């Protein structure tokens, strides 16, 4: 895991980055590896890939963070990327794998109300995707909206959102 994280930092080759991110994502399916990756500063390395200009690299980084977000301590570190993930979802091509990967991460990050406030500005985007997206996007958006709606503090924001 340490070598994969170092490889991500050391290379600019998108194909190598993708493969390293896929491997880290698969490794994160095991809870013991989630802690190891966090302790090796892997979350910030993977999070840094969200600003990459190659959509496939961003998508694989989102998938890795999604798997890593099953851990409360990891969520505390991943939450700094929520605004950027929301921007990626908004700017990604409609119905793209990149958009879906971002929504999956936002679903996990919205299970508790701790980070809902970071998603407020994206509510109009979520409602637009609910209207315009394909079935996979709609289902994922609904999961995010259900999580947000469970928080009474979000009611006003959800009802006042401009669509």
From TrEMBL:
Its main location: mitochondrion. Keywords: Membrane, Mitochondrion, Mitochondrion outer membrane, Transmembrane, Transmembrane helix. It comes from the Eukaryota. Residues 1-163 form the Armadillo repeat-containing domain. It is found in: Mitochondrion outer membrane. InterPro entries: ARM-like, ARM-rpt_dom, ARM-type_fold, Armcx_regulator. SUPFAM superfamilies: ARM repeat (SSF48371). One of its GO terms (cellular component) is mitochondrial outer membrane. It is a single-pass membrane protein. It holds the Pfam family Arm_2. This is ARM10 protein. The gene is Armc10.
């Amino acid at each position: 895991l340490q070598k994969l994280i170092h490889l991500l930092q050391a290379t600019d080759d998108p194909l190598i980055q993708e493969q390293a991110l896929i491997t880290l994502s698969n490794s994160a399916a095991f809870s013991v590896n989630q802690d190891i990756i966090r302790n090796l500063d892997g979350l910030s390395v993977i999070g840094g890939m969200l600003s990459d200009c190659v959509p496939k690299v961003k998508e694989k980084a989102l998938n890795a963070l999604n798997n890593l977000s099953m851990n409360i301590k990891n969520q505390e570190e991943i939450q700094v990327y929520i605004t950027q993930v929301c921007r990626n979802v908004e700017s990604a091509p409609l119905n793209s794998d990149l958009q879906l990967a971002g929504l999956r991460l936002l679903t996990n990050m919205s299970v508790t109300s701790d980070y809902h406030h970071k998603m407020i500005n994206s509510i109009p985007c979520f409602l637009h995707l609910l209207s315009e997206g394909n079935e996979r996007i709609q289902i994922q958006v609904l999961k995010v909206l259900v999580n947000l709606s469970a928080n009474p503090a979000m009611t006003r924001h959800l009802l006042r959102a401009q669509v």
